[in-house]
Specification:
Elements lengths: L1 E5 L12 E4 L2 E5 L3 E7 L5 E2 L5 E2 L2 E7 L5 E8 H5 L15 H7 L20 E3 L5 E6 L7 E9 L31 E8 L8 E7 L23 E8 L2
Parallel strand pairs: 3-10, 8-9
Antiparallel strand pairs: 1-13, 2-3, 4-10, 4-14, 5-6, 7-8, 7-11, 11-12, 12-13
């Protein structure tokens, strides 16, 4: 399945250091390439009566053999256990593919960073409410590689993934403070020698709804509004 987006390499800086940041979006970094992300119609999600939240996401690199190389960017909540209205849920269902790819197990047996041991092998920051622009250089020694994006809303319930789904069922996504629709996975092949650098972005599937594994599930049945979180993601050469 092909999405309507194109993408290459993404990274960022902690908070808004060395960046311009406002309510309209986030622009960070310097380098030979520029990645730009625009939100889809479902980027902001109703959370409570008066609150709208942007999604949580992370980006990482895998080589041509599918081996995890490094994390590029993770939003603050997943990077440092920054969930506020989670009812004690560590949100293992939020971004489980990335968590398992990193392969770091924490003291409670989960793969998510904690407040005491936040993410240190990548840059993290707030989720932009609108646009995201990053200038960067490719990782040393890699000229062809994949960039993966995993993206997810909290409490994004629908008919297939309802709030009251019972634990242990296929529709269960962490309970009333869980994900609802599971995280979606996108990837793009980046070739730094190519004229356009990035190929067409591919929607490869969704993650485990309850976060019990790190597999990617290609069957998109039951996914609806989550498909509209991401709008367009492109990469161009700077200058």
């Amino acid at each position: 399945m092909k999405s309507k987006v194109s993408m290459a390499f993404l990274a960022a800086t902690i908070g808004c250091l060395a960046a311009s940041c406002d309510a309209a979006g986030l622009s960070v970094g310097s380098g030979s390439l520029r990645a730009e992300l625009s939100p889809g119609s479902a980027w902001m999600h109703d959370f409570g009566l008066l609150q709208k939240n942007p999604p949580q996401f992370c980006l990482w690199i895998e080589n041509g053999s599918g081996d995890y190389v490094e994390t590029l960017y993770a939003t603050k909540k997943i990077a440092s256990q920054g969930w506020v209205f989670n009812g004690g849920n560590r949100r293992k269902e939020a971004l489980p593919v990335w968590c398992r790819k990193r392969g770091i197990v924490y003291s409670d047996g989960l793969y998510l960073p904690t407040k005491e041991r936040p993410l240190t092998d990548a840059l993290s920051g707030a989720t932009p409410k609108a646009g995201f622009s990053l200038s960067f250089d490719p990782p040393q020694g890699l000229t062809r590689f994949y960039v993966y994006l995993e993206i997810n809303h909290s409490t994004d319930f629908n008919a297939a993934y309802p709030k009251d789904a019972a634990a242990g069922t296929a529709a269960y996504s962490g309970g009333k403070e869980g994900s609802g629709q599971p995280a979606l996975l996108y990837r793009v092949l980046v070739d730094t020698a190519a004229a356009d650098v990035g190929s067409e972005c591919e929607l490869v599937g969704h993650s485990s709804p309850d976060g019990s594994d790190g597999d990617i599930y290609p069957d998109m049945a039951g996914i609806d509004s989550a498909l509209e979180i991401l709008g367009e993601l492109t990469v161009r050469k700077n200058g």
